[in-house]
Amino acid sequence: MEYGSIEREIYVEASPEVVFEVVSRPEHLREWWPDDAWLEPGPGGVGELIWNGDAPGSAKVMPMTVMESVPPRLFSFRWAYEPGAEPGPSNSFLVTLELVPSGAGTTVRLTETGFREQGWEIAKLEAAYRDHVSGWDWFVPRLGEYVTRLASTP
Amino acid sequence: MSATGVDDAVWSAIGDPIRRRMLDILLAAGPGTATSLSEQLPVTRQAVAKHLQVLGQAGLVHGTTAGREHRYQVDQAQLARAVAQLASVGASWDARLQRIKRIAEAIQRERDA
Predict the structure, then answer these.
(1) Would the CB atoms of A150 and B106 count as touching at under 8 Å?
(2) Considering only CA atoms, which of B9, B5, B11, B6 is closest in space to residue B85?
(3) Which of A41, B24, B74, B75 ranks highest by number of CB atoms within 10 Å?
């Protein structure tokens, strides 16, 4: 079974500078991925992705480390290793977001690698998390709120 | 889809590289025994038998008695289900990228306005 990587591409009608901010800054990250996030900027910067969970004490925290940060072209990070461990190919996923100027916007090329090198715990977590975020039912209203907040911020 | 006990068993069964290779061999060569599998893998027959037990508990292989040994074959339906679950990992990146797109485009529109 060849489950080495995920590759995706999406066109965004926004400049690479704006897209870079959205993919790399924790205040945006927490709007498109976990419930909460913090992250030190720049290569080697460490951070955490936090899912609150349903019950008290059920929060899940995933460490992440910035590998490359070349605004506004490239952002890559490792995540999902054991807290306190050094992230590497044997214990984490490497996510690379390449931003290519394209017409009036940006093509985002995503790769995530690491499935074959480690256990599947994180895939399980993702499957469980998807129950909460599956489909647009959950995140469209949330996005609406976010856009409204952005628009009302001076 | 939820992380039920069955799903957990499937995930941890597929999480081991030797067990993935065993599934590959059984898919390519058809039904096999612990002995025939151990001849193609760098592990003992006893280890293969244990791995087959894990795969069996996850419903990924089924054994039938053949002489003194069990002969195992892949449960295609259960395997397809596991593959679909894996594909959902890709689907969650699709959802994230859609959100990145919407957020970035909202910011861009606001800056252009």
Answers:
(1) yes
(2) B11
(3) B74
